[in-house]
Amino acid sequence: MEQEEIYLLVTRYLARQTSSEENEWLAVWVALSPANEQTFEQLKVLWEGSKTSPAPLETAAALHRVKARLVQPAGPAPVPVRRPVKARAYQLVLPAVAVLASVGAAVFHWYPQPTEPVAYRVQRTAAGQKLTLQLADHSVVTLAPQSQLRYPRQFGGPHRDVYLEGEAFFEVSKDARRPFRVHSGSWVTQVLGTKFNVSAFRRAAHTSVSLVEGRVEVLDAHNKYLLTPGQQLLAEPATGRVYRRVFNQAKVVAWKSNKLIFQNEKLADVAGEIERLYNVKLVFADSATAETRLWATFNNEPLTAVLEALQLAGPVACRREGRVIYISERPAAARNE
């Protein structure tokens, strides 16, 4: 049978206008190959979508009954006998056939076919290093220090998926047909085209998604959160708390220009930012020292300037040994000098 005749027979079957012999022929044809079965299922979906009152359960049951009647002997498949279609039946289904024929060429674009395994690239940054990438869809990603992005060489399938460990700023090109998804820890951030920052470092006190432009939705195992520009979704792994809040854009994306902005924050909470930017390790002598609060802005300044500011922030002393910075309580005598 020609392709259009197959469409006609399937349509007549779904309209319950086929004979038992035609049902048997169709069952044989569906069973001949997985491709035939897939074509039948796709045409069935299109048929049901065009009906005013679809009855998918009845259609599936009818198909099951037809397949159950099929007893295919060993050897070559039986050759179906072509029979003329009655004029009245043809007139009844002609509009549906026209619709199916018109979309027949496109149907395989709507239902993804098996593809080759996705080839991924992995980019990593060291401490003090940033990297800007342009992906295959022309989206631009700026990777923060000590971060990693895994992304496909070419995007295929219904989504554009990338995998982030650390922090990155995304400028996503618009594609309404294929949402862009960032997988970071237990979160999936999905967008069509927008600008946003994701921070998801391992063992960090917070995980966040900060939206600069457009709209995003963030999904975890149980919930979906919608963000509008200027909103940040913040999670505290230690407590399990997740909440939205307004964020300071200049502060969140300061790392892109080697800036650090601290606003009455504990040294323990900002130590990671200092370590990633300057490739050092901060070691606190005790919890009280780690609780010292810092209010300062560093605009691409050397590490020595940061250490001096730490010592001015409270009664702390900094001692450097190579890449390790030891922070301890300043002796009482030194405080009075």
CATH topology-level name of the largest domain:
Jelly Rolls
Indicate the multimeric state: single chain
Q: Which percent range fits the helix content? A: 25-40%
Q: Please provide the ordered H/E string of secondary-structure elements.
A: HHHHHHEEEEEEEEEEEEEHEHEHEHEEH
* Helix/strand structural class: alpha+beta
Q: CATH first level of the largest domain: which class?
A: Mainly Beta
Count of discrete domains: 3
Tell me how many strands there are. Answer: 18
How much β-strand is present in the residues?
25-35%
Low-confidence stretches: 52-59, 69-115
Dominant shape: elongated
Quick check: average pLDDT?
79
Protein name: FecR domain-containing protein
Pfam families: FecR (PF04773), FecR_C (PF16344)
GO molecular function: sigma factor antagonist activity
InterPro entries: FecR, FecR_C, Ferrdict_sens_TM
Give your account of this protein's structure:
The protein is α+β, with helices and mostly antiparallel strands and 337 residues long. It folds into three domains: 3-110, no CATH class; 120-251, Jelly Rolls, CATH 2.60.120; 258-335, 3-Layer(bab) Sandwich (Phage tail protein beta-alpha-beta fold). The chain is 34% helix and 31% strand. The chain has helices at residues 3-14, 20-32, 34-50, 56-69, 87-104, 107-110, 249-252, 267-278, 287-290, 303-313, 332-335; strands at 120-124, 131-134, 140-143, 148-152, 160-171, 180-184, 187-191, 195-200, 207-213, 216-219, 224-227, 231-236, 241-246, 259-266, 281-284, 293-299, 316-321, 324-329. The strands form three sheets. Strands 1, 2, 3, 4, 5, 6, 7, 8, 9, 10, 11, 12 and 13 form a 13-stranded mixed sheet that branches. A three-stranded mixed sheet has the order 15-18-17. A two-stranded antiparallel ribbon has the order 14-16. Strand 17 and strand 18 (324-329) form a beta hairpin. Helix 1 (3-14) packs across helix 3 (34-50). The longest helix has 18 residues, at 87-104. It is elongated.
